[in-house]
Predict the structure of ABC transporter ATP-binding protein.
Amino acid sequence: MTLDADTILSVRDLRTWFKGRHSIAKAVDGVTFDLKRGKTLAVVGESGSGKSVTSLSIMGLLARPGAIESGQILFRDRQERVHDLARFSQKQFRALRGREIAMIFQEPMTSLNPLYTVGDQIGEMIALHEPISPSEARKRALEMLRHVEIPDAAGRLDDYPHQMSGGMRQRVMIAMALACSPSLLIADEPTTALDVTIQAQILDLLRRLQDQFGMSILFITHNLGVVAEIAHDVVVMYAGRVVEQAPVMELFARQTHPYTRGLLACTPDAERDLGSEGERQALYSIPGSVPPITDLPPGCAFEPRCGYAVPACRNALPPLVKAGENSISRCIRSHEI
Ligand SMILES: Nc1ncnc2c1ncn2[C@@H]1O[C@H](COP(=O)(O)OP(=O)(O)OP(=O)(O)O)[C@@H](O)[C@H]1O
């Protein structure tokens, strides 16, 4: 198992399937990407594209019948040891989760317990992984509340989650996630439920915490506007597969897959340069919806919705090919887009 020195996470040809009695839902089907140390990689796509199943696979949190069919999830821990998480047992995951890899979600109450004060919850998170006295745990919890810039942190330590606003709860969840200084943070739509101003504040906070703690972030979102704010690199997923991957600047300067173009055209306030007005109108909302992943066509899965499609798109699944300076695209017409 080899990993480039600057890579913390390498997902290689990952397949996570849900096998039913009569069909197989290939939620993640051959996904490959690398996350660099201290960087943010955004995974983007519409609902059902396989983003969450990818992150749950990495965290060992898949629910039955979901299971990793094949592939590798190589992760470098703090001692520079490389593990294949695709082969981890639940026991191994319990030692790793929280300490080396942490996760934040759209809904803070999935992580927070309404019956305990925020100070106790953060303290307990630390105590789970380190031998620490109750007073030391309380001190560290306070420190964490200050790190996530909660005003009057000392006064909020004994608050219960329901006494806080949505934005403040989100900060507490981030404090809990970062309490043990994980080297990888997986953020699954952490700002989607928040209004635009609070969303911008949380993204700003995550960026600052990343500089301070040096962690890598895998950021799951359907919103390219958020990607522009936070990501260094971007993976675009469609129907369980990667369709485009590029550094963020390159992706916004030129999209090499029609799906990415469509997503960008649907994103309010995103920077974009989509050429003519006619083109912008045509792509404003992507027609149709993601096909059922139990029954994908043999060719390009986006072909039925694609304004650039030609008959050859239906023949075989296009491979991911180099399409720009540092970008790859799963489109046979990537150079004409
Ligand atoms: N328990 C399950 N049983 C069968 N199929 C499932 C199950 N959970 C997820 N899937 C399949 O996996 C696909 C991808 O789901 P996933 O949640 O990863 O999408 P997503 O891109 O994260 O979307 P969202 O933004 O809505 O969370 C779904 O369309 C669904 O078909």
